[in-house]
Amino acid sequence: MASAMRVTARLRCAGLAFIRRGFSTAQLRHQHWSSATSQWHQNMDSTALETLKNGESFLPFNELILSHNFYSTDASATVQTLEETPAASGEDENSEEEDTLPELNKTNETPRKKKWNLEDARREICKVLNKDDEDMEETLTRLGVQITPPLVKNVMVKTSSPNSVLRFFQWAKLQPGFKHETSIYDELVNLFGRSKDFETLPMILAEMLSARCNYSVKTFSFATAWHDDSDMLKNLTEMFEKMEFSPKRNAYDMLIAALCEKNHANAALGILEKMASADCAPRAVTFRPLITLFCMKDQLDKVQLVFEMMKMKGCPPDSITYNLVLSKLCYRKRLAEAVEVLRSMVDNGCKPDALTYDIMSYATCKTRRVEGALELFDRMKEEGIKPMYLTYGYLLNGIFEARGFDEAHAFLIQQSGTDPNLDSGNYEYLIRICHKSGLQKEVQKLLMEMKAKDLELLDDNLFEILHENDVSQAT
């Protein structure tokens, strides 16, 4: 009787052990093929090899391919791996389990896929997952459900057991024609993050990169609940430090961004200070969520402190960082403060780019300082910076409002002749302004000029508006 109970217990643990060993044996190797270039690892799984054979390119961190055959899309490779590593589970007398595990993936025939609606399929799969028995994978296969990303995400959201979700996740990965999307990995990371499973979590994060799914703010949204729990955030950053893959900096960056998105600036600053390891020094992009948050809260004094921190960390603010501040100030028409930031930008050796001038042009035109906007435009041309298309629109609108149609039309003619797409866009912009102002004769004049220059209306909506008002005959 006792022997039968022990066998039953092993069977119940078989499915979970099957998944756990797959993750626990996933390691990052540094060996190379002797007959290949050094960037391709000896332990690449079948998916990676197939991708390489098809000539697809990998991300910069593509070499971080998980070594275990568990990550192959071939179910037989999974079974073989388990048979070849009987000591992986660390259990005694596991020969009975070895005989049982291969049965989990065996079916006499491939079941015909049935037509299920999303809700019915989710409900049936959740019933199987809630049982969490040793036959879960086989039962899922017998259902004959066509696996899709929306279905997988629905099942993961509606299932409370992380272990069941993990088994379902790995089973779904083996289904023909299916591939997990980034959002599915995000859901799995958040599930185990909320469960505080710091053993499984880093393995999921490592596999996520090997599957060429980048981290995002959503990946670490679970950590925002710990913004006032320094111990939990410490556990998370310690986990990052133990992860054996180079883009751990990306994990830090996205964690900081997630905290800032939820207005947890102090927690984000605390994470920033923990990025002290030599291979994980913060970059300018690391500070941008903090700067954006402080700008939105009109805390320019704290923005200045972040700037000073960036200099101390060896990554002074770049043009993108300055542009973040300028855009917030200019949107609020705080031109004087924006000018001060621009001067600081130049004084610190950071050259303004096309976006910088575009932001400043918007602000000066909105405040009806057209002379200043035109001076910025000329300076941009002198420095060899090509204006953005939107910059021309801001100037046309500013000149029209301050000086009227004739001046705006003169500027349009002066800037035309080099880029047909730009010319069409500028004509359309001025036509729209004139139509809105009720200047239909001017609209006809512009349309005739476009026809003479062999320019076409690129905006179908504008054409429909003019056609409805019987002013599009010139086209």
Descriptive report:
- This protein has helices spanning 2-24, 46-53, 75-84, 95-100, 118-131, 136-143, 149-158, 162-173, 182-194, 201-210, 230-242, 248-261, 265-274, 284-296, 300-312, 319-331, 335-347, 354-366, 370-382, 389-403, 405-415, 420-436, 440-452, 460-468.
- 35% of the residues are buried.
- The radius of gyration is 30 Å and the shape is flat.
- The chain starts with a helix and ends in a 7-residue tail after the last helix.
- It contains 24 helices and no strands.
- Helix 13 packs antiparallel against helix 14.
- The chain has a domain at 422-475.
- By secondary structure, the protein is an all-alpha fold.
CA-to-CA gap between the ends?
92 Å
Fraction of helical residues: 55-70%
Average pLDDT reading: 78
Binned strand content: under 5%
Task: Give the number of helices.
Answer: 24
* Principal-axis shape: flat
Q: Largest sheet at a glance?
A: none
Order of helices and strands: HHHHHHHHHHHHHHHHHHHHHHHH
pLDDT under 50 segments (min length 5)?
A: 7-109
Structural class: mainly alpha
The Cα radius of gyration reads: 30 Å
Number of strands: 0
Task: Give structural attributes.
475 residues; mainly alpha
Write the layout of secondary structure elements.
Elements: H1 2-24, H2 46-53, H3 75-84, H4 95-100, H5 118-131, H6 136-143, H7 149-158, H8 162-173, H9 182-194, H10 201-210, H11 230-242, H12 248-261, H13 265-274, H14 284-296, H15 300-312, H16 319-331, H17 335-347, H18 354-366, H19 370-382, H20 389-403, H21 405-415, H22 420-436, H23 440-452, H24 460-468
Helix pairs in contact: 5-6, 5-7, 7-9, 9-10, 12-13, 12-14, 13-14, 14-15, 14-16, 16-17, 16-18, 18-19, 18-20, 20-21, 20-22, 21-22, 22-23
